[in-house]
Amino acid sequence: MFTPATDLSAATWRKSSYSNADGGNCVEVADGFTGVVPVRDSKDPQGPALAFSAEAWASFVGAVRADEFPRV
Q1: What pLDDT score was predicted for residue 20?
Q2: What is the DSSP letter of 55?
Q3: Which of 2, 4, 7, 44 would bridge 36 by S-S if both were Cys, CB 3.0 to 4.6 A apart?
């Protein structure tokens, strides 16, 4: 379970395959947390992380893959 006091210093972060190679739009996620998915901005690794329920994250990823969001 993830709580605000959860120590993420030893988390193994991986960059999203949707992040581009030139350093922009970099989202990282950490695996291994039961029921939640920590997410952070790779350009600010010491900054805050957001935690989404695994179900909400799966829904978001599915919508991204299905191109359901408008391009900005």
Answers
A1: 64
A2: H
A3: 2
